[in-house]
Amino acid sequence: MKNILITGGAGYIGSHTAVELIKAGYRPIIIDDLSNSQEKVLERLEEITGMKIPFYLGDCADRSLLDQIAKDHKLSGVIHFAAFKAVGESTQKPLKYYKNNVGSLVALLEFMEAHSILDLVFSSSCTVYGQPDTLPVTEDTPRKEAESPYGNTKKVCEDILVDLIKSKSDLKIISLRYFNPIGAHPSGKIGELPSGVPNNLVPFVTQTAAGIREKLTVFGDDYYTPDGSCVRDFIHVMDLADAHVKALSFLENKNTNFYDVFNVGTGNGNTVLEVIHTFEEVNDLKLNYEIGPRRPGDVVKIWADTTKINQVLGWYPKNSLADSLRDSWNWEKKLNE
Ligand code: NAD
Ligand code: WQD
Fold it and tell me: NAD(P)-binding domain location, by residue (predicted)?
């Protein structure tokens, strides 16, 4: 059984990926400092998978801890999720974001080279495209001026990976540019756990439906889109998790010194109002919402061209928007039980 180190594996996307890795016959090993997650996720993962996952509490930039993990387990690859992701906070505390997001990647790459651990999947983001001039976006769509220091950390990290491969490093690396991950494991045992008031749409929707928030504000309905609200490509987190498994197994069959980038989305754009109405329909409830002003800095519309990941990795999403919103609500309900 191959051991895969998952940095940030107690977090939203990492925890779902751990489930999919186990299903595919890998053994995940998690390192997480719990700065944005909770230790009980580990118990939940055990309940879902029937497997106890080795867990290391700490910073994935801590080389002595990484060396200890490599001593305890022969690692064949790494999936690097660990990062800070609050866009607003990153504009207030840019150094916190550069230090963690860029610093942890550099530390991890040094560690991988030192131990000849060659395969890496890196969490990038559609944020690197900013507001693209043409839609849908392919991997060749030019990256834009980042909307935030957070977005810029993802661009810088991608650039570091490109430079490393140019330097003839033996590493084999895939960056996955995620679009908007939503949904939860169908069991409702793991899901997204935003701390404080959610910034993202779907956690705000589910918390409003649960009565934790009084009402949802739709940030603008006067954009040049089918119903005036913004358009995003919402991808079920289990499908996103599966993309990591496909990326890893693809890397295993590659020769050394390899880098590529893939979009991970559904290939469809949905408006914010479509999300609300689909959520109401699939869960048979009414959501308290109002139309409010535009949110400064919002991208108006973006969705992925997924031809490359479909053809090269053989990855296709299995879940619809309705499936995702049903699973998001199932998770939120169970949280409040
Ligand atoms: P998350 O906050 O739920 O998970 C990240 C995990 O990393 C958390 O458990 C946190 O405690 C941990 N962590 C942070 N810094 C660490 C460090 N230095 N050492 C060890 N652990 C650390 O976030 P997520 O939504 O699961 O995102 C995972 C990755 O995907 C991030 O890199 C994020 O930038 C990227 N991403 C997320 C989205 C999204 O909308 N959720 C979209 C695009 C890209
Ligand atoms: C989606 C749409 C809002 C909340 C963020 C990050 C980006 C990337 C993905 C990580 C927008 C609208 C939201 C609300 C609303 N993350 N909305 N009312 O804007 O695509 O991007 O997540 O890499 O970097 O910036 O996601 O969920 O915040 O918003 O109307 O209360 O929902 O205006 O149109 P976004 P989001």
Answer: 5-326
